[in-house]
Amino acid sequence: MGLFLPDCRPLLIGSLPLTDHQEAIEQIFAATPEIPLWPQLPVHPREGMLRQFVGGMPGLMERGGKIFVDPTTENFAEEILGFYEEYLLVTEGGAALEESRFVLHQEDAPGFSSFLRHATTRRGSLYALKGQSTGPVTFATSLADNEGRAIFYNDQLRDAAVKLLALKARWQARMMGEILPRPIVFFDEPGLAGLGSSAFITVTPEIISICLDEVFSGVREEGGLTGIHVCANTEWPVLFASGVDIISYDAYGFFDKLILYPEELNTFLARGGILASGIVPTAEESIDRETADTLVDIWFDQCRQLENLGIVAETVYAQSLITPSCGTGTISRTYADRVLELTREVSEKIRSRFLRVTGP
Questions:
Q1: Rounded CA gap, 220 and 209, in Å?
Q2: Are 181 and 1 in contact (CB under 8 A)?
Q3: CB burial class (10 A; 0-12, 13-18, 19+) of residue 97?
Q4: Would 280 disulfide with which of 129, 215, 316, 324, CB 3.0-4.6 Å?
Q5: Are the C-beta atoms of residues 274 and 265 closer than 8 Å to each other?
Q6: What is the pLDDT of residues 49-63, one digit of tens each?
Q7: CA triplet 210, 213, 218: central angle to 5 degrees?
Q8: Are the C-beta atoms of residues 126 and 37 closer than 8 Å to each other?
Q9: By C-alpha distance, which of 254, 348, 232, 253 is closest to 292?
Q10: Could you tell me if 138 and 147 are in contact, meaning their C-beta atoms sit under 8 angstroms apart?
Q11: How confident is the model at residue 195 (pLDDT cuts 50, 70, 90)?
Q12: How far from 298 is each of 15, 31, 172, 281, CA to CA, in Å?
């Protein structure tokens, strides 16, 4: 199919501050009609970053409204064995992925099935479909065991968590791929903002690479594209080296940090990588301060800075998406509506202005 060239089309980051999934879907398709995504509505407890994807994890327990993994129970050995047996059956073709523990059930992701139905009716106008998952590092550093220790530091539990997310992402990609080839799945990794800090001193680039490689492989098995979303600063060379197809970042707040690595950035774009430019802020004071025109000006200034690094403007344009800097699930409905409106408007203005300047 050749390179995926989004040409600064608009894209969203998943969460919205709504309660009704159908309303959310309609709003998503209005703002991003060519590359819509399925909605996550964290006002519903089951749609939080951990809870939405944790189903099927061996040793999973809940106490006092808190979920955790307990590997000390008498039936844990049986549970972990059953998990790996099912994983092997699915990955080796002995069992159907669609009938396994690795699907996102309706009660955990009610927006997904409605999204698929809506996308089917709009198939002719779509460029791609996007899904999302909590990333493996964030998931495994946020989910604790019975002693309150992150499961990331338990090799067996971390491995099970990564395999769980890999197949849940693969299932998403398969379902979307039945509607449109080359589905996109983002792995949301706010936890990667902690890289380099004392709290993450033992989280090495090598372990991160292993985790990301495995979840990416699940999407690629279905012909999909992979993305990583980090809404703060991080160790960008680790992401550039990960082999990911799309890097989604807060261009409004952290563009200056990203371009500190010109060699890695050039290599990433040269291999067809996509920058999901989070140029639309999601902090309320910044939303109040900016307009579509001011954000377009910021984007073109950033484009010029990338040109100074040896990246031609046409490449920046062709290999960019225009997104909010983060999801909108934690801001008010009024501000979230404005973010979606700005995302659509900024994309339209960039595309019109770029083609007017560079066209014949």
A1: 16
A2: yes
A3: buried
A4: 324
A5: no
A6: 999 999 999 999 999
A7: 135
A8: no
A9: 348
A10: no
A11: confident
A12: 25, 21, 34, 12
Region of 8 please: left (phi>0), alpha (psi -120 to 50) or beta.
left
Helix (H) / strand (E) element for 136: namely helix 136-142
Q: What is the pLDDT of residue 2?
A: 63
Count of other CB atoms within 10 angstroms of residue 162: 23
- This prediction has a pTM of 0.95
Signed CA dihedral, 42, 45, 49, 53: sign only:
negative
Which residue bears the tokens 């990588």? 273
Q: Residue-wise over 315-337: b if at least 16 C-beta within 10 A, else e?
A: bbbbbbbbbbbbbbbebeeebbb
DSSP tag of 198 = G
Amino acid at 280: V
Residue with tokens 């999901």: 276
Q: Could you report how far apart the first and last alpha carbons of the chain are, in Å?
A: 27
